[in-house]
Amino acid sequence: MDINLILQLATSGFLLGGVYSLIALGLSLIFGVMKVINFAHGAMLVWGMYIAYALMNWTGIDPFFSFVVSAGGLFVIGYFTQRIVVNRIMTFHESMQVIAMVGVMMILENMAQLIWGPDPHSPHTKYSLSTIWLGSVMIDIPRLLAFLLAILIAAAVFVFLKFTNIGKTIRAAADNRTGALIVGTNVNRVYAICFGVGAACVGAAGSLLVPLMPISPHTGFPFKLTSFAIVILGGMGSLPGAMIGGLIIGVAESLGSVLIPSSLKQVISFGIMILILLFKPKGLFGGKGS
Is the distance from CB of 55 to CB of 49 less than 8 angstroms? Predict the structure, then answer.
């Protein structure tokens, strides 16, 4: 097998894996704090993409700049989703939580279809086809920019959780809800902010994906499945695990395209997920938090 081809595929997968990591980071944060799996995560990704797409059409703002607006919009959606839906189902059985979150997913997807239509949109930027060469490896400029911004956004989330007062409160509520209540913490508000931050991560990731692929109301579904595999690989609720797992899955899917059609790339990620469940059920990082 040509070593240059392997390097090319590994590089492309690694760069896309950075965006995977940001998507999974939001999912892992929500689960790690509230123990609720956000089945609407893919639909929220689509809303982040459509917000960036709409801004690009209306104002000409590049999606790599409008991720701030997408993140802000999804923070609001996530905040009120937690307040209205998640806060009422946190004590329910897991199956009931799944039904409720699938309902949220269907509402968001159908609202997107109602507003923007069912047909795919393929936005183009001035640099959509731009590339640079690193030795014998060709690097797509859009993928490189998406990767760099995804890592910067993820780093900002880690800083927020570790050094800000609200971030420390989120971590405290995740570790001991009862203790947080005893000291007077408004846990419901903290959970709503946490869900908003998780949704903001996937909203920003959606904006970063706009120059890379077409948008449709159901674009987020495969990303949701991949993010589940990443979170299980890294460890449920582990934020570092989500970051590293995203890079691993990105590279594995890309290299796997040598053996199977790219349309079946999720076979790779789910194969890895099954192996992890069999031999290391707690994931690479054992479910440890940030």
Answer: no
